[in-house]
Specification:
This protein is of the alpha+beta class. It has a 5-stranded antiparallel beta sheet. The protein is globular, with a radius of gyration of 18 Å. The N and C termini lie far apart (about 45 Å).
């Protein structure tokens, strides 16, 4: 039975340590995931530098992840042991005005798993089944760990409401910007302009 395990944590600016973490309280709607892949987000770099305004050090890192479900709570109905899943790291109260309207991204008490001490660079991750999603059979775990940042780029492109033949500009060719570029191309945008201060990123674009 799993009781404790190592987890990567930024203990001070520029220093990452492996610390022992006790398995979070396992609720009846929770699933236990064995992490197979975890990506590095820009916010992880801010934490590493000690410059994240909402994650004072010491702080856990990693929230873009994918893995296999090892066990499920008694009331879990949508997922089962063995499912390959990715995770939405947002924590919302579920009761405020915005949550009741289905706009939980505006939750008055919104937080993220890493801000509550559970990072993705670890063997195990506990999450409510509402925040875990099955991976298609054609996606491997490394690709599955990129579903969360891809959803950010997809949301941006959908909000832009690109139409056939329109042009658009993308400011910043980091991971999200490059994903937005690929999605904008699939949206049949005519001319796509990308700006960045790094030559390497522009070459990738």
């Amino acid at each position: 039975m799993i009781t404790s395990y190592p987890m990567a944590k930024v203990t001070q600016a520029g220093q990452i340590s492996w610390v022992d973490r006790t398995l979070p309280e396992f609720g009846s709607h929770d699933v236990l995931i064995q992490v197979r892949a975890s990506a590095v987000c820009g916010s992880d770099l801010h934490i590493f530098k000690g410059k994240h305004p909402s994650a004072p050090l010491p702080a856990a890192i990693g929230h873009e992840l994918a893995g296999e479900i090892l066990s499920v709570g008694a009331d879990v109905t949508r997922l089962k042991v063995g499912d390959r899943v990715t995770v939405e790291p947002v924590l919302a109260c579920g009761h405020c005005y915005y949550c009741r309207r289905g706009q939980y991204h505006l939750c008055e008490q919104i937080s993220f798993q890493y801000r509550r001490g559970q990072g993705g660079f670890t063997p195990y991750f506990v999450v409510n089944e509402e925040r875990a999603f099955r991976l298609p059979a054609n996606l491997d775990y490394a690709e599955g760990a990129l579903v969360e940042p891809l959803s950010v780029a997809l949301h941006a492109v959908k909000k832009a409401n690109l139409r056939l033949g329109q042009s658009c500009a993308i400011f910043g060719a980091g991971a999200i910007g490059l994903m937005a570029l690929m999605l904008a191309r699939r949206s049949a945008a005519a001319n796509i302009f990308v700006s960045d201060v790094h030559t390497f990123r522009l070459q990738k674009a």
